[in-house]
Design brief:
Shape: globular
Helix content: 40-55%
Largest sheet: 7 strands, mixed
GO molecular function: acyltransferase activity
Number of helices: 25
Structural class: alpha/beta
EC number: 2.3.1.-
Enzyme class: transferase
Keywords: Acyltransferase, Membrane, Transferase, Transmembrane, Transmembrane helix
Radius of gyration: 28 Å
InterPro entries: Acyl_transf_3_dom, Acyltransferase_3, SGNH
Strand order of the largest sheet: 3-4-6-5-7-8-10
Distance between the termini: 63 Å
């Protein structure tokens, strides 16, 4: 994937003056091919992440740093020329795939995926896709979004940022070296060790405390490029060591390949990386590069330098670009989560054909142009991406506009499940669904009110958000909403009540961490346990009039709903502090994306419904749990989400779910009367 970076597959040796000299390194193309094949095969058939992207990062650092070091040693780095050269080769293939993605996405993707895809397409063009996904990883509304057709551009975005940063760093080191007469090789080595070491330490830390964010964060990946750069600076000296006999090189090379192939099998890359675990594929790739041309008849370089892998290495970049949108669109259109052998083979075959065509008619033709014309071509294609994405956004925005009000006679939402409601008065054929399918992925409770967030006075690591009462000078009540995203979604319900009764709201939220005395969702998540302890201290200090949180969790097919002991213990601690609790029953979690289903099957489709008896037991789980303190009032919303037989995708012309397990803010607002009744039971 790193081939468009502007550096050929090279082998570095050191001249008498200590300057690295470039020589062709054919086994590097084979390593590229192996990495991209692992990425494609794991994505298509295994449904896991392989670690191949980390190999691309190391190779990019190896090639770019080596080239910049040689340029600096010859007299200096022309930063602007380097940028022009890099992006003139990078942009054309990228923009061709993005334009094709916009066109195909418009025709083939369901409407609920339009807005996220447009945003991510523009982010990908600007080499900011990793930051878009990093934002989504900490945004409860986006965490469960289905993978977009351009999600894989996150790694290319980090590479693009490296292409911008690396020339500046090397140029700065070269200037400082010439000024004080230091050795360039030594100074650059020290810089890479310092920057890479800091990045690695931060990567380990952030992976422990927030792995989803760490996965896409640029700073947690810099060390992989730095490792490749260090290898470029020192590989010629390592290769010349007498200990590296042909037999040793053969063992080293095959060991690296074996480690690389097994990485995705033995590690949960998407959940453990980067951190310490990313050393596995990067060091495996480094072993292969150090082994180099082994001179042994059984050396792995004989395989990697072969015609087949070298050819795949030549098209590795467009193959990486094409395989993911082809796979994602296939999964969307078939409604499957995984492809069988024949379907997967077809996806890979189409990806190879498109990759070859892109290499032959885009990359090679661009390579034949001078830098100015190549960059101009890429700019024109980039403009085409922006025009296409902007047009798609305009259409999506128009369809997202819904001039209907939830709770109105035509869109009663949860009120339609009341036994007193006249269902005959509703005709879905005469009423638009609200929120619209386009709007649904962004219809999150947190977006409905203006939260003012900042660190707690008692714990700087705890974020506390507030919404003042409509008339703060006369407000008499403050209600705190606490817990994970399933508690947070009821902030939309509470906001309706707070508006009517002039209450202020406080929010403390952490993904996958409901209010408890321990971590309930992820076992032994010390960060969640610590957060819950900090929340309790904050609640005791601020002493709100009530706390709104979850009463149960894990409502999914198979009757898994429970009220954990940790919930009850947290309520007991609040009871001791004299703080009332309104505990809301959890909503069902489906095993499919509800909005995707409605977009594919249509409104009211039976395939988008789940029998209630497979989700909810007749009696709520807290009724059988001992030790529930007297300060707790329960809000059982089951009858406000499901009818006696079925849990539907829409109720009262209002879409219930924004994904597979979160309520739309629009529907949550129609549950306000149920929560208001619970608050009334507090005697207010």
């Amino acid at each position: 994937m790193s081939s468009p970076g502007g550096a050929p597959a090279s082998r570095t040796t050191t001249t008498a003056g200590g300057v690295a000299r470039s020589r062709f390194r054919p086994e590097l193309q084979g390593l590229r091919a192996l990495a991209v094949l692992l990425v494609v095969v794991y994505h298509v058939w295994v449904g896991r992440v392989s670690g191949g992207v980390d190999v691309f990062f190391l190779i990019t650092g190896f090639l770019i740093t080596g080239g910049l070091h040689r340029a600096a040693a010859r007299g200096g780095v022309d930063v602007l020329a380097t940028w022009r050269r890099q992006f003139s080769r990078l942009l054309p293939a990228v923009t061709v795939v993005l334009v094709a993605g916009v066109v195909a996405g418009f025709w083939l993707l369901p409407e609920n995926r339009w807005m996220p895809t447009v945003r991510e397409t523009v982010a990908s063009l600007l080499f900011l896709q990793n930051w878009e996904l990093a934002h989504n990883s900490v945004d409860y509304a986006a965490r469960d979004n289905a993978a977009s057709i351009v999600q894989h551009f996150w790694s290319l975005s980090i590479q693009g940022q490296f292409y911008l940063l690396a020339p500046l760093v090397v140029a700065g080191v070269a200037i400082a070296t010439r000024r004080d007469g230091a050795d360039l090789h030594r100074r650059l080595t020290g810089t890479l060790l310092a920057v890479g070491g800091a990045s690695f330490a931060y990567s380990v830390y952030l992976t422990l405390v927030n792995q989803p964010l760490a996965y896409f964060h640029s700073a947690t990946r810099i060390w992989e490029f730095a490792l490749g750069g260090l290898l470029a600076l020192w590989i010629s000296r390592i290769e010349d060591r007498p200990e590296l006999t042909p037999g040793t090189r053969a063992v080293l090379g095959w060991g690296g390949v074996a480690a690389l192939v097994s990485c995705g099998i033995l590690l949960q890359v998407d959940r453990a990386f980067p951190g310490w675990a990313a050393l596995w594929p990067t060091l495996a790739a480094a072993m292969v590069l150090v082994a180099g041309r082994s001179g042994h008849r059984f050396g792995v370089d004989r395989l990697l330098s072969g015609r087949v892998l070298r050819t795949i290495g030549d098209i590795s970049f467009p193959l990486y670009l094409w395989h993911w949108p082809i796979l994602t669109l296939t999964l969307v259109r078939t409604g499957q989560d995984r492809l069988d052998l024949e379907q997967g083979a077809a996806v890979i075959a189409v990806s190879f054909v498109l990759a070859w065509l892109t290499h032959r008619f885009v990359e090679q033709r661009i390579a034949a142009l001078d830098v100015r014309h190549a960059l101009r071509t890429g700019g024109v294609l980039a403009l085409a991406v922006l025009v296409a994405a902007g047009s798609w956004y305009g259409l999506a925005a128009a369809r997202a506009s819904t001039p209907v009000l939830a709770g109105s006679p035509s869109h009663p939402g949860a009120a339609a499940l009341s036994p007193q409601f006249d269902l005959a008065s509703l005709d879905p054929a005469d009423a638009e669904l609200t929120p619209s399918l386009v709007q649904a992925p962004d219809d999150w409770s947190y977006h409905r009110t203006s939260w003012d967030c900042g660190p707690s006075e008692h714990d700087a690591e705890l974020e506390v958000c507030t919404v003042p009462a409509p008339a703060p000078e006369t407000s008499e009540r403050t209600v705190a909403v606490v817990g994970d995203s399933h508690a947070q979604q009821y902030a939309a319900s509470l906001a309706v009540i707070a508006e009517q009764r002039n209450w202020s709201m406080v929010g403390m939220f952490r993904g996958a961490c409901p209010m408890s005395v321990r971590s309930e969702t992820v076992a032994d998540d010390q960060g969640c346990t610590d957060w819950n302890a900090a929340v309790h201290d904050q609640l005791v200090a601020m002493h709100p009039d009530a706390v709104l949180t979850l009463a149960s969790r894990d409502v999914r097919p198979g009757l898994h709903e429970q009220t954990p002991e940790g919930f009850v213990q947290a309520w007991q601690r609040l009871d001791a502090a004299g703080i009332p609790v309104v505990a809301v029953r959890d909503n069902p979690r489906f095993d499919f994306n509800v909005v995707d289903c409605v977009a594919r099957q249509g409104r009211g489709a039976p395939d988008c419904e789940v029998d209630r008896h497979t989700l909810y037991q007749p009696y709520p789980p807290w009724s059988a749990v001992p030790g529930v303190p007297p300060n707790v009032v329960f809000a059982d919303v089951a009858d406000g989400i499901c009818d006696p037989a079925v849990c539907r995708s829409e109720v009262g012309n209002v879409l219930v779910y924004m994904d597979d397990n979160h309520l739309t803010a629009t529907y949550a607002e129609t549950l306000a009367p149920t929560l208001a009744t619970a608050f009334d039971h507090l005697g207010w």
